[in-house]
């Protein structure tokens, strides 16, 4: 799957991306509220090597976030697709996570990439998207709020993160809420 937005291209991560990915994913500030931080370039390369080529129900699917013009890797976006129910139909939420390299933050790239991923998932019949963030991760909370996502839960000290129990906020958005927001924006233009 390749998604194009006005400024970005979302496509597969390749072995040639390992150094750029390690540079931002290995940054302690970037990794501060994330479960995975590569300890070495080799670990980043192995992580890319192990990524699924195609989306699979119930599994994370990682996409590169690149500048459309140059192809430069500026981040990555993960989608955990709904699992299958007993009749073999996809049933459940899609979960999203995104990382943007510090040098490229604050320019609207995460919003643009997540919107494209939401459109892609909702066009495939997914009804609900969720994202889980540490409340101290103010940039992520701001991103999710700016996308119109609603905070639905605050789980206190619900997981172990880098030597301490951490809280977890769950944000959600329904497909019809995104469509209604787009309709409203269209009417006010
Ligand atoms: C969270 C993250 C992906 C945001 O990326 P970004 O490209 O800088 O975000 P955008 O420029 O698209 O900004 C989106 C919105 O969040 C706001 N925002 C972004 N960073 C912010 C910050 N540090 N403080 C306050 N608001 C912030 C922007 O103002 C914007 O709001 P607006 O649309 O109302 O203007 C980035 O900070 C990051 O990679 N953090 C580390 C990885 C991480 O923790 N990921 C978990 C994500 S679920």
TrEMBL record:
<dbReference type="InterPro" id="IPR051531">
    <property type="entry name" value="N-acetyltransferase"/>
</dbReference>
<dbReference type="InterPro" id="IPR016181">
    <property type="entry name" value="Acyl_CoA_acyltransferase"/>
</dbReference>
<dbReference type="GO" id="GO:0016747">
    <property type="term" value="F:acyltransferase activity, transferring groups other than amino-acyl groups"/>
</dbReference>
<dbReference type="InterPro" id="IPR000182">
    <property type="entry name" value="GNAT_dom"/>
</dbReference>
<dbReference type="Pfam" id="PF13302">
    <property type="entry name" value="Acetyltransf_3"/>
</dbReference>
<keyword id="KW-0808">Transferase</keyword>
<feature type="domain" description="N-acetyltransferase">
    <location>
        <begin position="8"/>
        <end position="176"/>
    </location>
</feature>
<protein>
    <submittedName>
        <fullName>Protein N-acetyltransferase, RimJ/RimL family</fullName>
    </submittedName>
</protein>
């Amino acid at each position: 799957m390749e998604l194009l937005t006005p400024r970005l291209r979302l496509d597969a991560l390749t072995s040639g991306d390992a150094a750029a990915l390690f540079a931002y994913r290995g940054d302690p500030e970037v990794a501060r509220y994330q479960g995975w931080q590569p300890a070495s370039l080799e670990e980043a390369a192995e992580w890319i090597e192990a990524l699924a080529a195609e989306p699979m129900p119930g599994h994370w699917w990682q996409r590169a976030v690149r500048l459309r013009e140059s192809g430069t890797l500026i981040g990555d976006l993960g989608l955990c697709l709904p699992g299958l129910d007993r009749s073999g139909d996809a049933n459940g939420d899609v979960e999203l996570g995104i990382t943007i390299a510090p040098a490229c933050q604050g320019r609207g790239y995460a919003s643009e990439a997540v919107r494209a991923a939401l459109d892609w998932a909702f066009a495939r019949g997914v009804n609900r998207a969720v994202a889980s963030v540490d409340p101290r991760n103010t940039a992520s909370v701001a991103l999710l709020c700016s996308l119109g996502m609603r905070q639905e839960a605050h789980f206190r000290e619900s997981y172990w993160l880098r030597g301490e129990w951490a809280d977890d906020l769950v944000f959600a958005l329904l497909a019809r809420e995104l469509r209604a927001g787009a309709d409203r924006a269209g009417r006010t233009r």
